[in-house]
C-alpha cells in the first residue's frame, strides 16, 4: 500500500511591486515561512522541486536555489509547465513521498516578474507559448491568445462578454481580506466593464496583474500538527500545446485531468466544497469552471450571480483573490491557490477562514489552456 502525502505547511511573501527583490531571495523568504508553518528544520527537507523563473532562467535553478537557501536534499529538480507548474510539482512531490523516495519535499516558486523586467520583456517572454511559425511572428501576445479563446467560447455558449466582469469583482472582494494581495482595492461591476480594452473581448479588468512574489509548500509523509490535509487524488492532461491545434474550446483537457484526480480520490465533483481554480483571465476561470463540471456551459456567470462562489456560497472560490487580484508572479501565482486551499482545509486561514471545509478541488493550466493538472485535497 502506498503511503499518504500531506500538505504540511505553506508560506508566501506579499505580492505586488517589491523593489530590490530577486527570485532567490523571494523564494527563500517563502521557504522560511513554509518551514515554520510545517514545524520543520532545513535539515528535514530531503526533496526540493523548484519552478522556473523568467527573470532568472538558470539551467539548474533547483540546485542554485538549494545552494542559496542552505538546503542539502537527496532529490532536487527544476520544473517548467507554464501556469500548471505549481500543480505539477505538488503532484510529483506527492509521488516522491508515496513511493518512499522522500519524506519532506519543498515545493517552491517565485520571481520579481514586475520589478525585475520591463513590460515589453515580459510580454515578449510570455508570447513564446504561441506557435513559432504562425502565431508568434504575427505579434500575438498571451492576452491575444486568450481573447481568441474567449471569442470562440462566447460564440459557442451564448455567454456575453459583460458576464465575465463579475469574476473580476469577486476576486477583488476576496483579495481585500488578504494583507499580502497585490490588488486589494474594491472594484464595482460598472468599473470592471468600463476598463480599457486589451484584446477584444477582454478588458484590463479581465486580465491578471504581473507581480513580484513567492510561495512555498511542504508535502510530507507525516501530517504534522493540527488538522491533516491529504492529497487524495491527482491527474493531468495534455491535449495540445498551441491554440491553432486545439480541436474544441469545449474540451481543452481540463475535464480529463479532473476526472483522473477525482477517480483516484474516490470522489465526485458533487463532494467538493472548496474551489482553487486557475484564473489568469476571467475567461480562463469561466471556461475551467464549466469544463470541470462545476457549472453548465455558459452558466458559470449565473452561479456567480447567485452567490455560489462567494465566501458564504456553496463553493467558495479562490478566497485569497486568485491571480486576478492576489497577483501573478509566474509559477508562484498558481501555487498560491494550493497554499490557500490547504490553509482553508486545515483551519489556518486567519480572518479569511470559512466554516469547516472537507474537500477542495485545485486545478491549474499552463500555456493557452494547454497543460492541465487537478488535485483533490481532503481534511482528515
Automatic annotation (TrEMBL):
- Which positions are tagged coiled coil? none
Taking every annotated instance into account, which residue ranges of this chain make up the domain Thiolase C-terminal? 235-378
Matches recorded under InterPro entries: Thiolase, Thiolase-like, Thiolase_C_2
Please provide an example of a Pfam family that matches this protein in its UniProt record.
Thiolase_C_1
Which PANTHER family does the entry mention?
A: ACETYL-COA C-ACETYLTRANSFERASE, NON-SPECIFIC LIPID-TRANSFER PROTEIN-LIKE 2
What is the name of this protein?
Thiolase family protein
Q: Organism source for this protein?
A: Cupriavidus basilensis
Amino acid at each position: 500500500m502506498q503511503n499518504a502525502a500531506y500538505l504540511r505547511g505553506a508560506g508566501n511573501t506579499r505580492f505586488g511591486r517589491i523593489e530590490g527583490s530577486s527570485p532567490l531571495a523571494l523564494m527563500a523568504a517563502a521557504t522560511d515561512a513554509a518551514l515554520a508553518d510545517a514545524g520543520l528544520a532545513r535539515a528535514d527537507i530531503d526533496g526540493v522541486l523548484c519552478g522556473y523563473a523568467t527573470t532568472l532562467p538558470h539551467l539548474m535553478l533547483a540546485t542554485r536555489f538549494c545552494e542559496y537557501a542552505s538546503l542539502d536534499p537527496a532529490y532536487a529538480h527544476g520544473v517548467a509547465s507554464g501556469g500548471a507548474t505549481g500543480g505539477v510539482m505538488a503532484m510529483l512531490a506527492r509521488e516522491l513521498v508515496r513511493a518512499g523516495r522522500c519524506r519532506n519535499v519543498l515545493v517552491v516558486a517565485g520571481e520579481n516578474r514586475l520589478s525585475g523586467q520591463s513590460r515589453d520583456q515580459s510580454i515578449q517572454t510570455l508570447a513564446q507559448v504561441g506557435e513559432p511559425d504562425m502565431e508568434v511572428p504575427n505579434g500575438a501576445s498571451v492576452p491575444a491568445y486568450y481573447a481568441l479563446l474567449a471569442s470562440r467560447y462566447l460564440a459557442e455558449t451564448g455567454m456575453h462578454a459583460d458576464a465575465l466582469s463579475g469574476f473580476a469583482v469577486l476576486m477583488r472582494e476576496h483579495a481585500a481580506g488578504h494583507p499580502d494581495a497585490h490588488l486589494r482595492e474594491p472594484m464595482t461591476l460598472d468599473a470592471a466593464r468600463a476598463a480599457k480594452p486589451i484584446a477584444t473581448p477582454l478588458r484590463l479588468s479581465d486580465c491578471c496583474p504581473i507581480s513580484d512574489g513567492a510561495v512555498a509548500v511542504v508535502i510530507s509523509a507525516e501530517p504534522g500538527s493540527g488538522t491533516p490535509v491529504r492529497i487524495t487524488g491527482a491527474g493531468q492532461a495534455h491535449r495540445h500545446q498551441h491554440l491553432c491545434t486545439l480541436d474544441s474550446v469545449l474540451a481543452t483537457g481540463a475535464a480529463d485531468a479532473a476526472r483522473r484526480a477525482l477517480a483516484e480520490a474516490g470522489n465526485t465533483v458533487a463532494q467538493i466544497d472548496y474551489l482553487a481554480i486557475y484564473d489568469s483571465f476571467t475567461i480562463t476561470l469561466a471556461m475551467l469552471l464549466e469544463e470541470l463540471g462545476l457549472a453548465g456551459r455558459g452558466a458559470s456567470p449565473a452561479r456567480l450571480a447567485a452567490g455560489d462562489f462567494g465566501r458564504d456560497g456553496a463553493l467558495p472560490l479562490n478566497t485569497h483573490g486568485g491571480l486576478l487580484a492576489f497577483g501573478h508572479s509566474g509559477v508562484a501565482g498558481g501555487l498560491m491557490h494550493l497554499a490557500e486551499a490547504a490553509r482553508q482545509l486545515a483551519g489556518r486561514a486567519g480572518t479569511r477562514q470559512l466554516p469547516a471545509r472537507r474537500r477542495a478541488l485545485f486545478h491549474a493550466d499552463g500555456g493557452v489552456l494547454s497543460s492541465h493538472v487537478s488535485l483533490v485535497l481532503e481534511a482528515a
